[in-house]
Amino acid sequence: MRFATVLRGGGGAAADRAARDAVRQAALPITGASRDYDPLLERIGDARFVLIGEASHGTHEFYNERARITRRLIEEKGFNAVAVEADWPDAYAVNRFVRAEGGDGDTAIDSLAGFERFPQWMWRNAVVLDFITDLRQHNDAVPPGQPAVGFYGIDLYSLGGSIQAVLGYLDTIDPEAARRARERYACFEMFGNDPQQYGMAAGFGIEEPCEDEAIHQLVELQKRAAELAGRDGQSAEDEFFFAEQNARLVVNAEEYYRAMFRGGRDNTWNLRDTHMADTLDALDAHLTRRDNRPARIVVWAHNSHLGDARATEMGG
Questions:
Q1: Which of 285, 233, 235 is nearest to 95 (CA)?
Q2: pLDDT surpassing 50 at residue 40
Q3: pLDDT category of residue 263 using cuts at 50, 70 and 90
Q4: Which residues contact 208 (CB under 8 A, 6 or more apart)?
Q5: Which of 141, 187, 209, 256 is the most buried (most CB within 10 A)?
Q6: Can you tell me the distance from the alpha carbon of 235 to that of 233, in angstroms, rounded to the nearest whole number?
Q7: Does residue 104 have a pLDDT over 80?
Q8: CA 239 – CA 14 distance, rounded (Å)
Q9: What pTM, to 2 d.p., does this model score?
Q10: Are residues 234 and 148 in contact, defined by beta-carbon separation less than 8 angstroms?
Q11: Does residue 2 register a pLDDT over 50?
């Protein structure tokens, strides 16, 4: 499949006609037929990562086609993870649902309840609901010993949610470690659920930053990786990975919100994009090790996060 970029400029009607003709020659029709995306899947070949960019924040038509492509990649190409531009702890609730790791009464719509941050409709919509319902049905039919498909978030806005996730994890396995974590994360408490208030206070020097406390908590978890991840098979390994990524997110979100008030929007944009890329790298390594086969991941993210913001208008 070829894609044409039309840059409007001078040339008048003749140039416009030429641009339209070029698009017609390059474009392939989407008819709703089951084989619509055959040329795309052929070009993807054996690639392990497929990045599906978009310029919308919730158009039904795009979401529907993105889901159609992703279903085919899962069913025909063996992709076993969907990584989306969403917060890690919120998306992990969906992951537990689609992999049947939650409670018996969990439903698809319940698993989306954690998406409360604006814009909610990016994930709490009918297309995503149908997609994760299909994922659960797909996973229920996977033969024993074969990897189920997971659903993961790669964004970094969930400072408070990730703190609570780390504490919840430690509460279940090591109350003393949980106490130490609470002491460290207490640095953020005065700002409640408003990380931008923290960023403003720390960025302008009104309050001491919580950078050291966040880093110390991540380091402590990482030093205990072999002990905690190896407690009880694959489940313990997955839960440790979930907690470690939340602790890493707290470190990166702390830097991100503090940087918001130091100027340079391209810098904060790239902090966020770097976190997404690092999360994807960590997810790839975790799934490859756990499933004993190279991970294959579909990434859903906006176009502006699939490159370096300094090369766009974001960089001035």
A1: 235
A2: yes
A3: low
A4: 187, 202
A5: 256
A6: 6
A7: no
A8: 60
A9: 0.89
A10: no
A11: no
Q: Tell me: the pLDDT tens digits for 120-165?
A: 888 999 999 999 999 999 999 999 888 999 999 999 999 999 999 9
What percent of the chain clears pLDDT 90, i.e. is strictly above it?
Answer: 70
pLDDT at 234: 81
Distance (Å, rounded) from C-alpha 34 to C-alpha 133? 19
Contacts of residue 45, defined as CB under 8 A and 6 or more positions apart, other chains included, come to: none
Residue that is written with structure tokens 């017609």 in the block: 24
SS3 annotation, the chain: CCCCCCCCCCCHHHHHHHHHHHHHHHCCCCCCCCCCCHHHHHHHCCCCEEEEEECCCCCHHHHHHHHHHHHHHHHHHCCCEEEEEEEHHHHHHHHHHHCCCCCCCCCHHHHCCCCCCCCHHHCCCHHHHHHHHHHHHHHHCCCCCCCCCEEEEEECCCHHHHHHHHHHHHHHHCHHHHHHHHHHHHHHHHHCCCHHHHHHHHHCCCCCCCHHHHHHHHHHHHHCHHHHHCCCHHHHHHHHHHHHHHHHHHHHHHHHHHHCCCCCHHHHHHHHHHHHHHHHHHHHHHHHHHHCCCCCEEEEEEHHHCCCHHHCHHHC
Q: How far apart are CA 253 and CA 278, in angstroms?
A: 13
174: its two tokens: 């090591």
